[in-house]
Each structure stands twice: as C-alpha cells, then as structure tokens.
Fold this sequence. Notes:
Blueprint: H1 2-15, H2 30-46
Amino acid sequence: AEAIENRLTKASEELTFAEKFDKIIVNDDLEKAKQETYEVVKAFLEG
C-alpha cells in the first residue's frame, strides 16, 4: 500500500512537467510505446 501511495505521489509530481514537452508517450503497451518513440525520434531527425 505504501509503495502504491509513493508511486501516485511521484506520478502527480511528474505530471506537473507535462506541459514542458512536445510529446508524451504512455508506456502502458511496450510495443506501442516503442513504435511511438521511434516515430517521434525519426520525425525529429528528419527535421
């Protein structure tokens, strides 16, 4: 229970930084997150 509470507190803190990023990738599905990351990095490098 304490670990969950700690994680929720940390998640709330992390979400305060969301507006500072162009893209947020949710890692709830590894393959989907990996593909999204690849596409974002590729688009960035292609400028």
